[in-house]
Design goal:
The protein is mostly beta strands. The protein has a single domain, classed as Alpha-Beta Plaits. It is 8% helix and 13% strand. The chain contains one helix and four strands, in the order βββαβ. It is globular and about 30 Å long. The termini are close together.
Length: 61
């Protein structure tokens, strides 16, 4: 089964710079202003670092 990163926008406060963006080892997460981050699925290696790091559990793998 292939895991896919999902962003739960209802859990993301969207009022600050997302701390999980900086922990992605391949730069698959990006954020525009204070919106919820977006995933580049072509880059994502599904390692789970961002989902483990997210304090609001808005990123799930």
């Amino acid at each position: 089964m292939d895991r896919k990163l999902k962003i739960l926008k209802e859990k993301c406060p969207q009022n600050h710079k997302c701390p999980a963006v900086s922990v992605c080892p391949v730069g698959a997460l990006s954020q525009k202003y204070f919106e919820a981050p977006e995933v580049d699925y072509d880059k994502c290696i599904r390692c789970g670092k961002c989902s483990n790091f997210c304090p609001k559990k808005a990123l799930i793998l």
